[in-house]
Specification:
Elements lengths: L22 H12 L2 E2 L11 H12 L13 H15 L9 E4 L1 H13 L5 E6 L3 H9 L3 E6 L1 E3 L2 E3 L2 H7 L4 E7 L11 H13 L3 E5 L25 E6 L1 H4 L7 E4 L2 H11 L8 H11 L3 H24 L3 E3 L6 E5 L8 H12 L1 E2 L1 E2 L7 H4 L2 E5 L4 H16 L1
Parallel strand pairs: 1-13, 3-4, 3-7, 7-8, 8-9
Antiparallel strand pairs: 2-10, 5-6, 9-10, 11-12, 12-15, 14-15
Length: about 400
């Protein structure tokens, strides 16, 4: 007989029972069904630099990476990552023992948490948080402890006292994300110094997701937590090529940390994908060596798009939190007389032909995120202009 299952317990591992289809899949399907402009999922609608794409083609044709690459990643990319960390942040990283290439930052986060967290360990994460964080903590058997970023004076703020109070004798690890998705907050040097002091004082490990490191705006600056006193030996730093070079489909990420931490993370990672993205690793190595003008121009382009979309959302009647980093704008729907972001986003494609993401799905404390929605501005300007026009027209109806 087929189709028979035991009724004794559900098929899905209980640790994952609370995680259904991701909101990104739901909203992207809604965009396709309604023909809406998709400002939900954070992927660019144009490819990155032509010379980087050609580097991937060249690697394919030359037979580099078409078979299994080395487990830690190809030497060229590990060397490029180390050079990037030194050039940008003054961090000395050994490419042979302190760099691990992963299938995007998402796998890096999963491998780090599976390696470092045991059942019963508490993991503190800043909410709202990228949805894979909660799932990875659950898969590791840990307990997530959210510390909520709260809106005030045009940005979302971390309450350092609340963070300190969240640490217990069971806390193993802090999971940070700066620049922060979805709020766009960039933790300041002073905030990071306080976090570093807390981590040292309580002997905590830190996993820090820095995939938006090159996307900071206005007066904000990105400062890696690993640069602070006492943090080099307890911090796993994660980044990737997808956001910086607009090749999100390549899924090339990396971990930098001490040899002991890298070895631990690799012990988990080798049983996930083992290796991935062989030819693309060579291309990303060349991308990381692009001149500073590339990074400056990229940031300037995204800043102009941020301002364009933020102004359009304000004209459509929403209250806007202009991000200091990332490529997402958070908006408050309460000025429109709405308060349920999930219902708002499900209705928006039919009402305005635009898709956004309800921020509440990134919270444990759903009520704290209920009135907020996230729009991605990593799109062509014509798309952003049309989205703003549609949202304004929908408000007028």
């Amino acid at each position: 007989m087929t189709g028979m299952t035991s009724s004794a317990r559900p098929l899905l591992n209980r640790r994952l029972a609370e995680f259904g289809t991701t909101i990104f899949a739901e909203m992207s399907a809604l965009a396709l069904r309604t023909g809406s402009l998709n400002l939900g999922q954070g992927f660019p609608d144009t490819d990155g630099p032509e010379e980087v794409r050609e580097a991937a083609v060249r690697a394919l044709r030359d037979g580099r990476g078409n078979q299994y690459p080395p487990g830690p990643g190809v030497p060229e990319l590990r060397t490029a990552v180390a050079a990037h960390q030194r050039r940008r942040y003054g961090l000395a990283v050994d490419p042979d023992t302190e760099v691990l290439v992963t299938a995007g930052a998402t796998e890096a986060i999963a491998a780090a948490l599976l390696a470092l967290v045991e059942p019963g360990d508490e993991v503190i994460a800043l909410e709202p948080y990228y949805d894979s964080y909660a799932a990875c903590v659950a898969m590791a058997g840990g307990t997530r402890v959210p510390v909520t970023l709260r809106p005030r004076e045009g940005r979302f703020h971390l309450d350092l006292d609340e963070l300190r109070d969240a640490v217990t004798d069971r806390t193993r690890l802090l999971l940070l994300n700066t620049p922060h998705n979805p709020t766009g907050t960039v933790l300041t040097r002073e905030e990071l110094a306080a976090i570093a002091e807390l981590a040292v004082e309580r002997d905590l490990l830190v996993v820090t997701d820095e995939v938006y490191e090159h996307l900071v705006f206005d007066d904000a600056e990105h400062v890696p937590l690993a640069t602070f006193p006492g943090m080099r030996e307890r911090t796993v730093t994660i980044s990737s090529a997808g956001k910086t070079f607009s090749f999100t489909g390549w899924k090339v990420g990396w971990v930098t940390a001490t040899p002991d931490l890298v070895t631990a993370v690799r012990s988990a990672k080798q049983f996930l994908t083992y290796v991935s993205a062989g030819p693309f690793q060579y291309a990303v190595a060349e991308a990381l060596a692009l001149p500073d003008t590339y990074f400056e121009d990229f940031r300037a382009d995204l800043l102009a798009k941020r301002n364009l979309l933020a102004a359009g959302l304000e004209e459509a009647g929403l209250a806007v939190y202009r991000p200091a980093g990332t490529y997402f704008v958070t908006a408050d729907i309460r000025p429109l007389g709405e308060s349920d972001g999930i219902a708002f986003c499900r209705a928006l494609p039919e009402r305005a032909g635009v898709v956004a993401i309800p921020t509440a799905v990134f919270y444990d404390h759903r009520e704290a995120g209920a009135p907020f929605v996230r729009f991605a501005f990593c799109k062509q300007r014509t798309v952003l202009e049309e989205a703003a026009r549609r949202l304004k027209a929908a408000r007028a109806r």
